Structure formats: structure tokens, C-alpha cells
Amino acid sequence: MQFRSDILIAVGSNQRSFAGTPEETLKTAYVQLEKAGGVIRNASPFYATPCFPAGAGPDYVNAALSLKWNSTPGDIISALHRIEAELGRERVQRWGQRTVDLDLIAVGDQVLPDRETYARWRELPLAQQMKETPDQLILPHPRMHERAFVLVPLADVAPDWVHPVTGQTVVQMRDALDPALRAEVVPL
Q1: Is the distance from CB of 13 to CB of 60 less than 8 angstroms?
Q2: Where is the 7,8-dihydro-6-hydroxymethylpterin-pyrophosphokinase domain positioned along the sequence (predicted)?
């Protein structure tokens, strides 16, 4: 197995955990990621961001990481889910409040499971997104291009990463967002 780089993860928290505040919870998650085999190459600053969707809970602390990891995408997502559970995350409500959220955004230029499935999830209407959960890993994250709370921190750690389907860099995707959405993502 080869050491994979350009693993991009979005992190967030809007509830206390046994580790403490959302910021302390994210720092604990970073330690757990490295214990699981990830090597953090770069971490963005923490940002205050509105809860998504609006009204689903308190505002978030969000950030992004760039890692290297000697593992498959499936093993990486399993490790992320295990770390979330260790930090008290319960998967009760889609897009609900959480002690920690570790989202695998991309692994290099891989499109998983295939371009057709990726396109279906990317084009899914919001009402269906709120109800349906993929039964397999979809990479890159099919809605990353819509989310300032992902793209603003991600631009700090991987500004030149190129989306393998759209051909846009993280900075291009971030800059294509409505300026009002970008302005909601405030450095702490």
C-alpha cells in the first residue's frame, strides 16, 4: 500500500464533548487522527460558521486539514467514523448537532465509486439530500463546491488542489461562492 497524500478533511463541532469546548474537541480529534495513522501536513485556523442548515443547532467551529495517510479511502472513512464515535458523536439526525464532524472531502484525484454515481449525488436536490444518505463512499464530497464552511478553511491548506471532475481549484470554487456566504465564515 502506498502512502497517499492530498487527503483533505473538513472538521467541525458545535457541541461540547468530554474533551471540552468545540475547539478542544477538534484538537483532540487531530491527536486521534495521528494515532490512527494520518500525518497532518497542514491545518487551517479555526473559523466560526453558522449552523447548516440554519436553525439545526448552535453555530459551528470549522477547520480543514491536509493529511498523508498510508491507507485506502474506505479505511480512512472508517477511522474518521471511529474517532467521531470516540468523541461522543451520535448519528441521530442528518445535519444535526454534533460533538465532532470529520468529513472526508477528497483523496487526491480519485472519483469514487465512479463518475456516474458521483454526478447523481452531486445533482441531488436539497430536499432529497436532507433525507438520503449514500450507502457507499462518494469522493470528492459531492457538495463541497456549495459550502463556504468547507471551502474557506480548505483554501488555507490546499488552495491549488484541483477537483477531478470540475477542473477547478479550491480557490476558484471558494471565489465562485456568493460573497455573503464567504463573509459568514469568520476566523476565531
Answers
A1: yes
A2: 9-159
